[in-house]
Amino acid sequence: MSQFDYIKEIAKYGLENDQEHLLKVINEFISYSRKTKKTNFALQLQSILKEGLRSQHTKGLTKTGSTKYFIKEDDREINELIIEKLTSDYSFDNLVCSEEIKTDLEYFVKEHHGIEVLNKFDLPVSNKLLFYGPSGCGKTLASYVLAGELDKMMYVVNLGAIVSSKLGETSKNLAKLFKRATHEDCIIFLDEFDSLGKVRDYSQDHGEMKRVVNTILQLFDYLPQNSLIIAATNQMNMLDDALLRRFDLKVNLDLPTKQQIKELIEKTIEKTQFRFKTTKELNEVVALSQGMSYYLVQKSILTAIKRTLFNNDKTSSNSFLIDTTILKELLKREKQAESTF
Length: 341
Ligand SMILES: Nc1ncnc2c1ncn2[C@@H]1O[C@H](COP(=O)(O)OP(=O)(O)O)[C@@H](O)[C@H]1O
Ligand SMILES: [Mg+2]
Known about the structure:
alpha/beta, Rossmann fold
């Protein structure tokens, strides 16, 4: 379905007062928006949905004061912090990065598989990891890879969404969330970790924000050994030393080198039947892609493949050769868009 189809369905079910279908379509639209990288829109829609449901609940017949009500209320507060609870089947194979980083991450995973060994020798377990680097270079992907490799459930928490909405509740809810994650043996993924630093610049309540940061520091300090926190930021400079020091491992996921671009291209086209006509063409594309993020390079290649596919005469022997004129044009445009941004 396209964006317009969702809107049409939402209008239809809304006017028909068909609550059940309406909720279903809105939820699907949220997932769709997330998949198509309209993260902010997805978040906004989600909070509209939650707000709507909440006011229905309070208007409804729920008996306030009953234990059942309190449990529900409790869950809802934590759920507000969680964008997604997921399992992943990504593995190291999906991530393009330097050998050093791969080794660091592999040891990180090994530590968790070997907690007992470490305990026996009274050695601390590394369980707080920070990914930093420009957008589109694999911070989220690397977190999914770790969740997959560790075979653990992951709570995705967007700090950007939390701090701007209900600051006053945040400390309390974060504490609850950590407790629950520990209890359920889940990874906590704190995306947009820099939001913690950012809010201090604005006119928001200074004291509240300090409290949130202190809560995080405490939660980090008393984190049980088998728990795991992964944080991600593309603005390291927003974070002060007290926060940064808490991490056992800080991993810089940077823009790809030429070699890494090649690897990404290979991995990207591997599953399609498409190939480059000559090594020379491939090298030209790699050269043009320099300075761009993994995400943008990959997106351009996939778009070029799709366009080649639609332009092709299926019977010709060239059908599965990527049209590099299209690809180069796309790359140039992305680069221009980046530089004017
Ligand atoms: N290092 C990488 N290796 C392979 N693919 C990558 C890498 N970085 C980004 N990608 C591709 O770009 C997409 C978006 O990257 P993402 O992890 O969301 O970036 P970030 O969280 O750093 O902004 C990924 O889902 C993946 O398809
Ligand atoms: Mg990300």
